[in-house]
Design brief:
It is a single chain. The protein is an alpha+beta fold. It is built from 3 helices and 7 strands, in the order ββββαββαβα. Strands 5-6-7 form a 3-stranded mixed β-sheet, sandwiched between helices. It has a two-stranded antiparallel sheet with strand order 1-2. It is globular, with a radius of gyration of 17 Å.
């Protein structure tokens, strides 16, 4: 009621009949060396590779460019095994540059993973 509009970052199109079609989120796409990577699609591709382990895909932006880190909680695989599985299943531009293993993720009091802390660790 009378509030400010909220930008959702949803990508939509309106068809000839006036229906809306959702085409993903613009803030979910990362440009890596001129190639677009959907973080949601990457999460979907990684889930079966990581054997049920909880993980977070963390985009990292530095002066030299952007890259992806994957943080894995209580992994059943080594970073090298995860990297090899990614190389087999993902296009080269979508392979995470860093694999970071955690005994436990930093979490909020509500139990949500604190991605900002993971991003700080990825940049360190």
């Amino acid at each position: 009621q009378g509030g400010l509009p909220y930008a959702t970052s949803d990508r939509i199109a309106i068809d000839a009949a006036g229906r809306l079609a959702l085409h993903g989120r613009s803030d979910d796409v990362l440009n890596l060396n001129g190639k677009k990577v959907s973080l949601g699609s990457l999460r979907e591709a990684l889930a079966p590779l990581l054997g049920g382990a909880e993980f977070a895909v963390v985009p990292t932006h530095e002066d030299a460019g952007s890259y992806i880190s994957v943080h894995v909680e209580a992994p059943r695989m080594s970073p090298q095994e995860i990297q090899a599985a990614c190389a087999q299943a993902l296009p080269p531009h979508a392979i995470p540059r860093r694999i970071v293993l955690h005994r436990a993720f930093p979490r909020s009091s509500a139990g949500k993973v604190l991605v900002s802390r993971l991003q700080a660790q990825a940049a360190a």
